[in-house]
Fold:
Amino acid sequence: MEDIKMTAQKAQYAKLKPELDQAFSTMMASMELQDGPQVKSLARALEDYLQVAHALPCAHGTDALLLALAALDLPAGGEVILPAFCDRFVAEAVAASGLQPMFADVLPDTFTIDPVAVSSLVTPGTVAVIAVHLFGQCADLAELLQLAKRHQFYVIEDSAQSFGASYTMPDNTTYRAGALADIAITSFYPPKPLAGMDDGGAVLTNQPAWARKAEELLRKGGPNNSQTGALSRPAPIAALDAALLEVKIKYISDYKQARQQVAAVYDQLFEKCGLCQVPVRNSRSTHIFQQYVLKVPGHLRDALQQHLQQHYIPSTVYYPQPLHLQNEFQLSYQYKKGDLPVAEEVAASVLSLPMHTELTEEQQGYIAYHTISFLQEHG
Ligand SMILES: *Cc1c(COP(=O)(O)O)cnc(C)c1O
Structure:
């Protein structure tokens, strides 16, 4: 059996090599490496695929979030509600934009932001909610859009982890993640579903005025007011990344299908486990399995990870610490342990297993065997 890896960038590259070589040599021959035709052409490909009016590629998903927040022109100090269980860059971008992050608890099954928790956090100072489409499927957009309409705030979609997932509204219209709310962002950082060489991101919106504003700000190197601190200032995407992404976007539905198949095999293998919960699907969303996340008893999680490591099985904890208990946010906004119990429990009990298009059933069987036998022995 081959070594088990968390991701399969190399194998994906090998398969696309002829097409990528072609794209790179065209780019090198033109020598338009700054703001060249590749960037515009990637923007059009994103607009086509996602069915969104305007896509603006940039250097990072975090840049995209800074640009999106600035394009909306929100009042300083406005409250932005976001899930306590997600990537810390989301909260950092909000704080760096002069806005106040308000952490909402998440749902115990899908781990996405809980609309009931959001509604209890709404105040006259609420300016936006960020719907983070976690691990490959969409958050409860229908409920969030309804709340936003009632209380007059914006919905920002973060589809960094769910590029290619789609969401069906109660009226049966279906949209791609990133095409539904007021404004959205995505990321092309290598572990993400559509990945460049080093990094990349994009702002997505149907509103021409916001698209124009974001583009102007990107040209100027970001909004003037933002105290980006540890975050870098928004920058354009590299032409090399744009060329690579445009090739890869054509294969996104193949990758998606292959990952769904891997997930189905895992589901079946873990059916008899008893002590673990396989990923729960949101019935309105498709799931592209950016991560395959098991939930296990919290007191066994770290030991399970060590046990798997001893058997050469890599795994990752996304995310070990909910945002409201991370030092800087806890101190600035006075949160304490117990404030958001579901996010805290989820952070203590999740484990992401190897998930990529090159995983074999033999490898998956080996992973499941070591996971289940450990849990049954210690549970
Ligand atoms: C990765 C990620 C980001 C940030 O994207 P970068 O390209 O790494 O800046 C933002 N939000 C979510 C949910 C992410 O997973």
Observations:
- The domain at 252-378 is CATH 3.90.1150.10 (Aspartate Aminotransferase, domain 1).
- The two ends are 29 Å apart (CA to CA).
